[in-house]
Every structure is written in structure tokens, then in C-alpha cells.
Amino acid sequence: MAYYTDRNSVKNYLPASVVEQLTDDSDIDNIDDEKLNFSIRQATDVIDGYLRGRYPVPLTGIIPFLISDLCTKLAVYYLLQRSLIITMPDAVKDQYDTSIALLKEMQRGKVNAFEAVDEPVFFQTNKVDTDRIFTDHPTNPMQTPSQVVTTTPATSSGQMSWGSYMI
Known about the structure:
- By secondary structure, this protein is mainly α.
- It has five helices and two strands, in the order H-H-H-H-H-E-E.
- It has a two-stranded antiparallel sheet with strand order 1-2.
């Protein structure tokens, strides 16, 4: 599975020594790629969860910078979250909150991370011209609003009539 960020992006965001400290549980003075990739996968899965239904996920091809940047910030948050020794910095927590808010806006369609296309948009439907049309009229679905007759007072039999229909 392709992820939306990589080791180098995380190392550009945080110093390598911090990434090493956050992933190296064995004190071998190396970045544990397995733990780093797990945090990146968590971030990718969160992004897919928000974008699912609006975009086909997982995203393929060239990943927009906004998505890659969000994935990096989320991966850093998850790296810091797995450490029980380090207190979560407010700046990282704020960026996490901002990233989630931005993903929610993308989910709603208010933010588009992808380049705009000048091609016309086409919608596909399973409806045809001969499908039934429903209106507000309760007894005759094909009656148009101009054909609707208002309710008349009760008849001598006590029944109400609506147009030519007895209620």
C-alpha cells in the first residue's frame, strides 16, 4: 500500500534525532522504520477515512501537497502520542486539530486539495424519461399543482371531498 508521506518528509518536519528518540525503544541509536511506518500508515488511514465517499481511496498517482503535508503532521502526532515520556507539545496538538478540521472540510466538499479541471462535469443516473414522477398530491401522483383542487366543506353524508375524490 502506498502512503501519503514518507520517512524523509517526517525527518524534514522533525529533526532526525527526535524521530530516532520517538521510534528507538531499544536504544540502538537508529530510527526504527517499522514504528515510523506504522505512524505513517495510521495517518494515511485517517485521511482515507475522511476522504472515503468523496474521492476514490486510496489515492493514487501524484498525491497533492496538501494531503502529503496533512499526512506528515498526523504521523508526527501519532509518533509523539506513542511516547509515554514526552509531553505532547501544544503546537503539535494544535496542528493535529487543524489537520482534522481541514479533513472534515474536505469531506464536506468545501476544500478541494486537487487541481481544478476545466472539463465539464457529468452526472450519471439510473433514471429514464419513462420513470414515474411523484408530486405532493396524495392520490394522483401524475397530477400537476395546477390541477389540484382545494378542499370543500363536508357533504351531507359527512364525508370530505377533495376534487372528485372522497376522503
